[in-house]
Amino acid sequence: MPAQTFAMGDRHGDDRWGDGETPVHPVTLAAFSIDTTSVTNAAFARFVDATGYRTEAETFGYSAVFHLALAADDEDILGQPPQTPWWLGVAGSDWRHPGGRHSSIDGLDEHPAVHLSWNDAQAYCAWAGRRLPTEAEWECASRGGLDGARYPWGDERGGLETASGAAAPDAASDEAAAADVAAPDPWRTNIWQGDFPGVNTTADGFLTTAPVHTFEPNAYGLWQTVGNVWEWCADWYDAGYYAVSSPADPTGPAEGTQRVMRGGSFLCHDSYCNRYRNAARSSNTPDSSMANTGFRTVAL
């Protein structure tokens, strides 16, 4: 990424209340080098093979699995949060078993590694001689040089859904509608289509993760910074940080209880979570792991 000054934050009014996507503020960054994709299962396996590392999900014995992707026995379900009942705490779920003990990553070498905590990402970085991006670096890279754009490719989402949430039919397949209905734009990222959280039409081709080189890269050559999987950043999270952020190479608050996550995931839908945007922010505790969270790294 070239050294530059960019406008960080949401200028479209899309921000989720309390996430702290505003005020929009200028940030100047030195040049840096960032992975073009999320760390893949194949890359994480090389790390594990070389070090014998056990992830926190493996150590704790469970992780969070989305209910439609469950591949486990009933007795493996350890809990179901009442506020988000589509998430299940599942014994035996980890990066090698993303849906539970009856799942595997066979054939998924080029999918992003998931069920990885911030601490796991730090361990990988130490082995690889890399680091996690700061939140400012991540947003700058995701924007691909497009000033203030909502997504890495521009302001329009892409893809089209009917009022019921199903993917709109190709107008060419219905001669009666062809004169009035344009063919839908292709999906540009891996998010939810349908009625969340019960029905995913998979109009973009995926129920859960997609290979990291799916869809198109942004102008900087980065693939799937939004959608697919959340990505950990180095920073502690503070919803009020933008008001006091350093204007040059900010590194986040000095302390906190949760770390920043960026980019949204395959579970994002406008009716529930519209955080598959350049400016969107979220966070979780450093030891948390989920089926929709991974990371990419930056050169030291």
Provide the fold topology.
Elements: E1 4-8, E2 25-29, H1 41-51, H2 56-60, E3 62-66, E4 77-79, E5 87-91, H3 118-128, E6 130-131, H4 135-143, H5 175-178, E7 194-195, E8 199-200, E9 230-236, E10 259-262, E11 282-284, E12 293-294, E13 298-299
Parallel strand pairs: 9-12
Antiparallel strand pairs: 1-2, 3-5, 4-5, 6-13, 7-8, 9-10, 10-11
Tell me about this structure.
- It is built from 5 helices and 13 strands.
- The protein starts with a strand and ends with a strand.
- The relative contact order is 0.22.
- Helix content is 13%, strand content 16%.
- The strands form 5 sheets. Strands 11-10-9-12 form a 4-stranded mixed sheet. A 3-stranded antiparallel sheet has the order 3-5-4.
- The radius of gyration is 19 Å and the shape is globular.
- It is an alpha+beta fold and 300 residues long.
Taken in chain order, the helices and strands follow as EEHHEEEHEHHEEEEEEE
Strand residue content: 15-25%
Rounded average pLDDT: 93
List the strand order in the largest sheet.
11-10-9-12
What's the Cα radius of gyration?
A: 19 Å
Tell me the major beta sheet: 4 strands, mixed
Question: What class do helices, strands and sheet pairing give?
Answer: alpha+beta
Low-confidence stretches: 162-181
> Could you tell me the number of beta strands?
13
The amount of helix comes to 10-25%
Distance between the termini: 13 Å
Count of helical regions: 5
Shape: globular
